[in-house]
Amino acid sequence: MTDQRADQYACTEAVLDVTPDAAIVSNLGVASYVLASVSDVDRARNFYQWGSMGVTTAVGLGLALSTDDPVTVLEGDGSLLMSLGVLSTVARYNPSNLTIVLWDNEVYETTGGQPTHASHTDFAGVAENCGLTARTVHSTNEFADAYRNSVSADGATLLSCAVDPVSPDARPPFDYPAIARRVRDALTNQDTNS
């Protein structure tokens, strides 16, 4: 095991660089804050989640099943711990356009940095046991290639990335119904600013 950790900001930028047209479903709190920090906060395909801990991957699965466009989930370790069973469901449907990026910082950063049980959980191992292709990375340099490989894989994948906790200042819009409509419109070509 290594103590090396990736830079979540740089890795999120890599997600946008590798898949500029992807719908990105970001976990409530830090994942959404970082996404808002490194992209246009009003990017039509940014699906920021609010008050939805534990369902980010499920939302991403539903979105991936409803479109042919690439869908990337930016999940948090605490959130995924609440719903590990979703990985079995993802494996059952196995949409090839779904990539799950797990930011593993081992804390509930949004609520004050309380420790999660992530240090005792091999997320890639759990995903593989559910039937998914999965990998763990520990550095920013590894991330972009690993993400590119995950996106091009035949089936849904999980990429677990060890990151340091961060506390971004940026905040995306809190109007959840408007965000959902904006993403829907972007994916159904009703919005040319996707």
Q: Could you estimate the helical fraction of the residues in percent?
A: 25-40%
Overall form: globular
Rg calculated over all Cα atoms: 15 Å
Main β-sheet, in a few words?
A: 6 strands, parallel
Secondary structural class: alpha/beta
Distance between the termini: 40 Å
How many individual helices? 8
As laid out across the biggest beta sheet, the strand order is: 2-1-3-4-8-7
Q: Mean pLDDT, nearest integer? A: 91
> Could you tell me the number of beta strands?
8
Low-confidence stretches: none
Secondary-structure element order, N to C: HEHEHEHHEEEHEHEH
The percent range for strand residues is 15-25%
Task: Offer a quick outline of the entry.
By secondary structure, the chain is of the alpha/beta class.
Account of the 3D structure:
Helices cover 40% and strands 18% of the residues. With 194 residues, the chain is α/β, with parallel strands linked by helices. A six-stranded parallel β-sheet has the order 2-1-3-4-8-7, with helices on both faces. Helix 2 links the parallel strand 1 and strand 2. Helix 3 runs parallel beside helix 5. It is built from eight helices and eight strands; from the N terminus they run αβαβαβααβββαβαβα. The radius of gyration is 15 Å and the shape is globular.
